[in-house]
Write a structure and sequence with these properties.
555 residues; 19 helices; 17 strands; 47% helix; alpha/beta
Length: 555
């Protein structure tokens, strides 16, 4: 009986395996003794063997393609086939034509990059020329132009670095300076021209007093209010009475009050306690005049009036000088103030004047509107000033940027303004980075009320030339550190108003300051910087000239 084909095939495979085994045995145990015998090992001479080979090729099925011998055949013949195909066709020309096209494109790209660099260089030279033509002028109207020119120079440099980065070697410096030598100090100090200040003499009558009333906002608002009261007192020839800490802030812990008298050269300011001692604790306000009559008289509520009476102060009813509204103050002149507030009475009080718009350019000029022999009249106490200097020497050094990064309660406030002044952290980081690079400052002092989640993200994104720029905040009290020993020794460490004034003082000492638009805290720092002569042409509000790239809807 004949066997099935499958069995026959299996027998043939067994025979093949046996033949291979026998051949391998012969190769290992019977080495050829001569070239002639070696050639005979691979010679097939009989016809039966030829027929057997043809029969096996004819009977190959798909499974045979994957056995070892079939794989060996394909392994040998496929490369030969590819070689024949390669030389018989023009495949080689296809490869080389592709390479030539690639080289052509690469050459054009390089040519375009060189052309772009040339144009950027020409633009850079033009910006340098524009900068040099304005850098010697301290006109406030040119400050925004100067700031814009510097931003464009910085952007030009960044674009050049991006174009050059693929061609730079590993040893080249990432921070190569592309600045023109004629640019000089890009963040130089602004010439405040103090000799050209418009001032008036403060020569008060020794028995005439003006009691200042300040109730609007936080300490920074009160300091602005106090400065305006000083102007009013000078116009009315009166001594200014600093409010009591029982109805206002403890000014003596943050301000050097006696410094004001020394700068003017006479007694122009007294504390409430000094006046109370002189009047035997019976102070009577002869006239209580209101600068603002809306929304409430003198912008003072009943609670504040009760506190004044509790101090032993008596007064008649409040009287409006005119129909001024806090929300829409009109411009007033020196003559307007003198005509409405002049009086022969011994003690007068004037309501809150924080929002008053009286000779604004005169009042806000560097050094203020009053003639004096100091840099500023209202400045930090000696203890705070020395502590700030010690902090700078310990942590910052001379070359640092200061940033007032206002966040708490600022989102809603800014979004009610046009344009908004509340910036997403990544956008704010870009703006801070540009200023830090322009100022060439290795560190930024951070004065902020932001949460750690925000400041942490901000820190990770402020990078100049591949290096993170540290954002330094005042650390918590540590007995091993001595920079704040004066505050601790006098028992005023941890006082919120002292810490706020310390932040202002440190920020005012920086080479460049970045402020928060709409913040009176920032405005007070700018006032100090102008008075101290530390204001820089690079000072600006955060992301000045930009709008937030995302703004939430209002409620």
């Amino acid at each position: 009986m004949d066997r099935p084909d499958s069995l026959s095939s299996d027998d043939e495979l067994d025979d093949d395996r046996q033949n291979l085994i026998e051949q391998n045995d012969r190769k290992h145990h019977h080495l050829p003794t001569s070239p002639r015998s070696a050639a005979a090992t691979f010679h097939i001479g009989d016809d039966d063997r030829h027929r057997e080979i043809r029969r096996r090729f004819a009977s190959l099925n798909l499974r045979d393609l994957f056995n070892k011998r079939s794989f060996l055949v394909f392994f040998i013949f496929i490369p030969l086939f590819v070689l024949v195909l390669f030389f018989s066709t023009n495949i080689k020309s296809l490869f080389f034509s592709h390479l030539s096209v690639s080289d052509s494109v690469s050459g054009k790209l390089r040519e375009s990059e060189l052309r772009a660099l040339y144009l950027l260089r020409q633009q850079q030279l033009g910006l340098f020329g524009l900068w040099n033509s304005t850098s010697n002028h301290s006109n406030p109207d040119l400050d925004d132009l100067k700031s814009s020119v510097l931003r464009q120079i910085s952007l030009n440099k960044e674009i050049q670095q991006v174009l050059l980065s693929p061609h730079s070697s590993g040893n080249s410096s990432e921070s190569e300076d592309f600045r023109d030598p004629s640019l000089g100090d890009r963040c130089g100090v602004v010439d405040q021209r103090f000799s050209e200040r418009r001032t008036i003499e403060w020569k008060p009558n020794s028995d005439k007093y003006l009691l200042a009333i300040c109730v609007s906002g936080q300490m920074s608002n009160h300091l602005i209010c106090l400065e305006k009261h000083m102007f009013f007192a000078a116009l009315l020839n009166r001594i200014l009475v600093i409010p009591s800490s029982k109805v206002d802030y403890q000014y003596s812990t943050v301000l050097d009050i006696e410094h004001i008298n020394k700068c003017i050269g006479r007694k122009v300011v007294v504390t409430f306690e000094e006046l109370a001692e002189e009047k035997k604790n019976h102070i009577h306000i002869d006239r209580f005049i209101c600068y603002f009559s809306k929304p409430t008289l003198c912008y003072v509520d009943d609670e504040h009036l009760k506190k004044l009476k509790a101090l032993g102060i008596s007064f008649k009813s409040r009287e409006p000088a005119w129909g001024e509204d806090v929300k829409k103050p009109s411009k007033k002149t020196v003559q307007d103030v003198q005509s409405k507030f002049s009086s022969g009475d011994e003690v007068i009080a004037i309501g809150d004047v924080f929002f008053a718009d009286v000779e604004q350019n005169w009042v806000m000029q560097p050094g203020g509107p009053l003639a004096h022999k100091c840099k500023t009249l209202i400045e930090p106490s000696r203890l705070i000033l020395l502590t700030a200097q010690r902090f700078v020497q310990t942590f910052l050094g001379k070359n640092f940027v200061a940033l007032h990064f206002r966040r708490h309660g600022f989102l809603k406030f800014c979004n009610n303004k046009q344009p908004s002044c509340f910036y997403p952290i990544p956008q704010a980081a870009d703006c801070i980075t540009r200023v830090a690079e322009r100022a060439n400052a290795p560190v930024v002092y951070l004065s902020t009320d932001a949460a750690e989640s925000e400041t942490g993200l901000l820190q990770s994104l402020v990078v100049v030339n591949g290096k993170t720029v540290p954002l330094v905040k005042r650390p918590a009290r540590n007995s091993a550190e001595k920079w704040d020993a004066l505050l601790y020794r006098h028992g005023i460490e941890g006082d919120p108003q002292v810490e706020a004034m310390l932040d202002k003082t440190i920020s005012a000492m920086s080479i460049v300051f970045i402020g928060a638009s709409g913040s009176t805290f920032t405005e007070d720092i700018l006032r100090l910087r102008k008075g101290w002569g530390s204001a820089s042409v690079c000072d600006e509000y955060l992301c000045q000239g930009e709008e937030p790239n995302f703004i939430a809807e209002n409620e």
